[in-house]
Amino acid sequence: MAPHSSDALVIGGGLAGIVTALELLRAGRRVTLVDRDTPERFGGLALWAFGGMALVGTPLQAKMKIPDTPERALADWLRFGEIGPGEHWPRQWARYYVEHSRAQVHDWLVQEGVKFMPAVNWVERGLHGDGNSLPRYHIVWGTARELTRRMVAALRAADAGRLTLLHGHRVTGLDHEGGRIAGAVAVNETTGEEVRLHAPVVVLAMGGINGGHEEVRANWPKDRPRPAAMLNGAHPFADGKLHRHAATLGAQITHAGEMWNYAAGFPHPFPHFDGHGLSAIPCKSALWLNHRGERIGPEPLVTGFDTHWLCERVAAQEKPWTWHLLNWRIAAREFAISGAEHNQRIRDRQFPLFLKETLLGNHRLVRQMQRQSPHFLVDDTLAGLAAKMNALTASLDVAPEVLQATADAFDANFAHGSKLHNDDQIRRILHARQWGPDRLRTCAPAPLQKPGAGPFIAIQMQLITRKSLGGLQTDLQSRVLDGAGQPIEGLYCVGEAAGFGGGGASGKRSLEGTFLPGCILTARAAARSIAGRPAP
Questions:
Q1: Is residue 328 within 8 Å of 285, Cβ to Cβ?
Q2: Residue 173 DSSP symbol
Q3: SS3 for 463?
Q4: Strand, coil or helix: what is 191?
Q5: What's residue 1's pLDDT?
Q6: Rg for the chain, CA atoms, rounded
Q7: Alpha-carbon distance 478 to 529, whole Å?
Q8: Residues 401-452: pLDDT tens digits?
Q9: 144 CB-near residues (< 8 Å, 6+ apart)
Q10: pLDDT tens for residues 251-299?
């Protein structure tokens, strides 16, 4: 193929790359967008994502009487992420996010035709109230798949003959001439043909650095426990190679050891790649057990408060799996799987069916997992369940009497009425149920062995990798910075490749739902800078 020239080259066809290209096309620029995947998967992992967004000061928050402000959100962000005063660019991006997520993400998406579900959820509250002090988690109606499809449609509408899309091409290096970026070299992964892509501006939007277990282990902090086995919830294309290539030009990779993983994954019944896992949204009412069927403690593991802490506790266990013990009553109300694939009522915008399953229980999903996943075990008795747990792990780890004692100890909380409840998990459940949307999806506390609530369910869970929180350091224009803090002329970075801004805007923990908005914010900032438009 002959050399190709354009005003800007965008590397990566995920949400961040698509939004960057869209905004540049609307600014009248000629754009080349290179993506490793097939045209059918244009949009990357955003096509599979659930579509939750942490947004500040929205009309929906006001309608629900949530008194949120950028100042309050920033205080939550910096405290929960443990982002110190010396972390200049992460702090700057955190401030930019809370101050502009309403106008630059929410309002912009609404203008593009995206709708949000009519409720704000409360996630990552922190173990001691140090997380989200208010509900901020907005859900895209249609999941992130609908959002991504709308962005792709807008991209094609803005084309006007100025867009070149190269699917199935892998960028192998960046061209650097006369002290500035001059383009890149790509290879057609089907034919092996090499093509030179000339552009005075290159935007890196290739995703994170933890798409494979080799990368995860190489970046894992030495002072934190790491399980012997993990599932993969990232994409194998997120291999970090372009990060390292940019580093040879002076770019700085920061916070590479910070990751947004999940503590409750299980193998995808129909995997898209090796080690592909699904991330369950753990049931708050399930008991979280170690490999022997004993409750993990002394502080019980309960989702919705601190995902980072849950991952550390799971990673520290003796064996690289844990168990969730629950019953059908709990599963029908609370069990869910993150992503678009297993939330089809939201994904396909089937509101009556969504409402029915929310109110009456999602028995359909529970039966589907019982049928499809060998890691989702169901039995009428705890002894029978223990036998199935041992058969799955080819062990005798779970003694039936231990599993029975675990259930009995929890159920004893209910023997003398609510006045004598004395369990941190019950307290957290009652706290969560005070917020209306959580009340709909969380069972009232009750004995695990409550008559009529069965059968019993055990789900084998593993830690699953998801996003890398670190990346290439950038300023508020999404320009890649060198070791002296100066922009590398012509080089930009957006989305997860930039640690969602600044090389690590979330710090050690995310307030959850910051990733899709982070892709949009960093992409729009890059496009404004390239087009010479003023900042908001």
A1: no
A2: E
A3: strand
A4: coil
A5: 56
A6: 24
A7: 8
A8: 999 999 999 999 999 887 778 899 999 999 999 999 999 999 999 999 999 9
A9: 15, 46, 47, 48, 49, 50, 51, 340, 516
A10: 999 999 999 999 999 999 999 999 999 999 999 999 999 999 999 999 9
> Which of 229, 225, 397 is closest to 312 using CA atoms?
225
Rounded Cα gap, residues 435 and 393, in angstroms: 38
Name the token pair of 293.
Answer: 């069927």
Give the 3-state secondary structure of residue 265. Answer: strand
Q: How far is CA 38 from CA 9, 43, 151, 189, 486, in A?
A: 18, 10, 17, 11, 36
Q: Specify the amino acid at residue 466.
A: R
In the chain, the amino acid numbered 502 is G
* pLDDT tens figures, 449-480: 999 999 999 999 999 999 999 999 999 999 99
Q: Using omega within 30 degrees of 0 as the cis cutoff, is the peptide bond preceding 455 cis?
A: yes
Whole-number pLDDT of residue 3: 75
Determine the pLDDT at residue 417: 81
Q: Both tokens of residue 399? A: 């003694």
Coil/strand/helix, residue 211? coil
CA–CA separation, 172 and 520 (whole Å)? 25
Q: How far is the C-alpha of 118 from the C-alpha of 353, rounded, in Å?
A: 16
Q: Give the span between the Cα atoms of 94 and 514, in whole angstroms.
A: 10
Place of tokens 């369940």: 385
Q: Where are the beta strands (DSSP E) in 107-179?
A: 116-121, 137-140, 163-167, 169-177
111 Cβ contact partners less than 8 Å away, ≥ 6 residues apart: none
Judge residue 231's burial from the number of C-beta atoms within 10 Å of its C-beta, 0-12 exposed, 13-18 middle, 19 or more buried.
Answer: buried
Q: What are the phi and psi torsion angles at 420 (to 5°)?
A: -110, 15
Low-confidence ranges of the chain (pLDDT < 50): none
Two tokens at 522?
Answer: 């960093």
Q: 262-283 burial, b if ≥16 CB within 10 A, otherwise e?
A: bbbbbbbeeeeeebbbbbbbbb
Contact 7, 199 (CB under 8 A): yes
Cα 231 to its chain centre, rounded Å, is: 14
Please give the Cα distance from 183 to 195 (Å, whole number): 11
Q: What is the DSSP string of 445-512?
A: P--TT-TTS-SEEEEEEEEEEEEES-EE-B-TT-EEE-TTS-EEEEEEE-GGGBTTTTTTTTTT---S
- Cis amide bond preceding 298, omega within 30: yes
Residue 31: what pLDDT? 98
Q: Is 434 helix (H, G, I), strand (E, B) or coil?
A: coil
Q: What does the block give as tokens for 312?
A: 């550390």
DSSP 497-534: GBTTTTTTTTTT---SS-HHHHHHHHHHHHHHHHHTPP
pLDDT at 241: 94
Q: Which two tokens stand for residue 171?
A: 């960028």
Q: Strands, DSSP E only, in 193-329?
A: 194-198, 202-204, 231-232, 253-254, 259-267, 277-281, 287-289, 322-327
Q: Which amino acid is at 355?
A: L
Identity of the residue numbered 257: G
Report the chain's mean pLDDT, rounded to a whole number: 96
| Claim: this prediction has a pTM higher than 0.85 | yes
